[in-house]
Write a structure and sequence with these properties.
Distance between the termini of chain B: 10 Å
CATH topology of chain B: Non-ribosomal Peptide Synthetase Peptidyl Carrier Protein, Chain A
Number of helices of chain B: 4
CATH class of chain A: Alpha Beta
Shape of chain A: globular
Shape of chain B: globular
Structural class of chain B: mainly alpha
CATH superfamily of chain B: ACP-like
Largest interface: A-B, 20 and 14 residues
CATH class of chain B: Mainly Alpha
Number of domains of chain A: 1
CATH superfamily of chain A: ANL, N-terminal domain
Helix content of chain B: 40-55%
Oligomer: heterodimer
Structural class of chain A: alpha/beta
Largest sheet of chain A: 12 strands, mixed
Order of helices and strands of chain A: HHEHEEHEHHEHEHEHHEEEEEEE
Largest sheet of chain B: none
CATH architecture of chain B: Orthogonal Bundle
Number of strands of chain A: 14
CATH architecture of chain A: 3-Layer(aba) Sandwich
Radius of gyration of chain B: 11 Å
Chain lengths: 370, 81
């Protein structure tokens, strides 16, 4: 027994990264920082969430203390679609996020308390700040005003726009409420800010369909040479439209002049600790998170270069048991602490959705080669 | 209009409040309209009204009516009158 008691409800963010350096930890230092915090979260959720307790008991023989990130129990992400998973009383909840499922599909519902919501904001600020700097840039939102107006239906898309709004100023919507390009708004925005750096943000599929393809269809183009596009979510739709990241980038650049593009990968179950694409095209785990690739048949950890199922760990979720989840996405570990961009930690690539995943329709395709 | 009146008007306008709801108890999520979307709208209104641009950290720290007064002081906006 340790001398210090560790109250299960203690929300103090002890092991969080130091401000301003969300990619500082080497492999050993990161294990040292993450493992105790993730053990604490396992205990916290085991105590607070009956469904999680049952799962850990049945599949893992109880909440053992583990020494390595890969040894934590992981929750299949689809459970968030079928169960109301939370570890705090309902009265403590401040918001429920839902995944952007297409109609007819069950959606994940993620319950946030004030502490978890604040930690998400803080982590997102640190992570995205590493790519766009701390200066707030004029922001062009590739979406319609109505997406934000609908606060009751708080989707991953709404959360993404709001989360990134903190990096923006003079937010301007590039689309009207019919999801058509709002030329007047864009022209006024560019007349005022077009010379300098500009943050452009949108959902991947929205940027592609309603911005890039819509400009192309009109035979129109824009000049946003200082634009930094951050986009994420909804890549599934792109994969089925067979658009490679390279084609996405090159058409965007041709039609808008935007040369800096950062995709991000993230799950609504781990909002905040997103995985940003670096200047060299790799997704990175920050010091708030870890990524593990497993064989889809026997769930053993696979070596770098071998594709498998993506497991995600995050120190942010306190109000629901989402600190270790097994996604239905496939990806490949590229390396650890070795990216030419200089960021420490794991770098990886996402390929697509696992074939035959429960929620998939027959028209969904696995990832195409880029 | 004094700075304090401008500040109060922003909260009243953005969150649809009555003047007697302003003060010590008014904080992020203490009223329905002050959620994360409302927050960004309020910040934009403050920046516009006082001609300043807040750091991202200060946007996060701006957790209540009273804390906001302290934060604005850093930007040279005096709300004491």
């Amino acid at each position: 027994m340790s001398m210090r008691t560790d109250p299960v409800g203690d929300p103090s963010p002890r092991s969080l990264p130091s401000p301003g350096h969300p990619y500082a930890l080497h492999r050993a230092a990161k294990q040292e920082a993450l493992v105790p915090e993730l053990n604490r979260l396992t205990r916290l959720h085991y105590a607070g969430c009956a469904e999680y307790r049952r799962l850990v008991d049945v599949l893992h023989g109880g909440p053992r203390q583990v020494d390595r990130c890969e040894d934590f129990p992981y929750l299949p992400v689809r459970l968030f679609k079928h169960y109301e998973l939370r570890s705090v009383p309902e009265a403590d909840l401040v918001r429920t996020l839902s995944s952007s499922g297409t109609s007819g599909q069950a959606v994940s519902r993620i319950h946030l308390d004030k502490d978890t919501a604040a930690r998400q904001t803080r982590a997102l600020t640190e992570i995205a700040g590493s790519f766009i700097g701390s200066r707030r840039l004029p922001m062009l939102i590739v979406d319609c005003p109505a997406t934000l107006a609908n606060r009751a239906g708080f989707s991953a898309r709404t959360a993404g726009i709001l989360g990134f709004s903190i990096f923006g100023r003079n937010p301007t919507h590039a689309l009207d409420d019919d999801m058509q390009i709002d030329s007047g708004a864009i022209e006024a925005f560019l007349a005022r800010h077009g010379e300098g750096p500009v943050l452009v943000f949108g959902f991947t599929a929205v940027v592609w369909q309603h911005f890039v393809l819509a400009l192309a269809a009109r035979g129109a183009s824009l000049s946003i040479p200082g634009g930094i596009l951050i986009h994420g979510g909804g890549w599934k739709k792109l994969a089925s439209a067979a658009v490679s990241p390279d084609e996405f980038k090159s058409r965007l650049r041709r039609l808008t002049g935007i040369a800096r593009v950062h995709n991000y990968y993230g799950m609504v179950e781990q909002t905040g600790s997103i995985f940003m694409e670096c200047e060299h095209g790799f997704l990175h785990a920050s010091d708030y998170s870890e990524v593990i690739i497993r064989d889809p048949l026997d769930f053993k950890v696979v070596a770098p270069g071998v594709p498998g199922l993506i497991q995600l760990l995050s120190v942010l979720p306190h109000s629901y048991p989402g600190h270790s989840i097994l996604t239905e996405d496939t990806g490949t570990m590229v390396g650890v602490d070795d990216c030419p961009c200089g960021r420490q930690g794991a770098r990886f690539q996402v390929h697509g959705r696992l074939k035959d995943a429960e929620t998939r329709g027959c028209s969904d395709v696995d990832h195409h080669p880029a | 209009m004094s700075n304090k009146e401008k500040y109060d008007d922003i909260f009243i306008e953005c969150f649809g409040l009555a003047p007697d709801q302003l003060g010590d108890k008014l904080a992020y999520r203490s009223v329905q309209a002050w959620d994360s979307a409302g927050h960004m709208g309020m910040i934009a209104a403050i920046e516009e009204a006082f001609g300043i641009m807040l750091e991202t950290d200060d946007i996060i720290e701006f957790s209540s009516y009273n804390v906001g007064i302290e934060i604005l002081r850093k930007y040279g906006v005096d709300l004491s009158t």
